[in-house]
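Batch manifest, entry 17 of 40.
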Amino acid sequence: MTDGEPLLITREQSYYHDITEFFVLVKEGIFAKVAPLYEKGLSLSEISAETKIPKTTVRSALINGGIRLRQKENSSHVKNWQRRGKKGALPPYGFCYFQGEIVPHPKEYKTLLVIRKLWQKGMNSNAIATELNRQRIPSRMAKAWSWNAVKNIVDRLKNNQLPIKE
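Output type: structure tokens
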């Protein structure tokens, strides 16, 4: 900027240089602009969309200005999942989530029964993995079976952690 030009406070005012437009954002100006919107009940994303100020900048300005941020509310489907037992992790091999509950997976469950049958015959994890790969039965990620993946399944079988039905 040249000498004597006032300090720019908001994005509406800008300084042009050739073809690039530079925006000067002053923290006090940002806080003065976003605080009333947040007090009205707008979310950080809504404020960001309305003011064209990045969401992280809006958040920082509010926190530095002494405003305590509201807690995020879970949407209704997340609350239903939590109530029914839906967790963030994948379900065990052979099972899937359906309407928030763990049910047998249409494709994986048959393979789980094969693994159980081989384990009951006395085969170890490495031998079971070799047999599954020989039969070209894909794993959950459509890769070759590793002894460790089979060992995890066998450990769950040993500890009765899988609700297997005949």
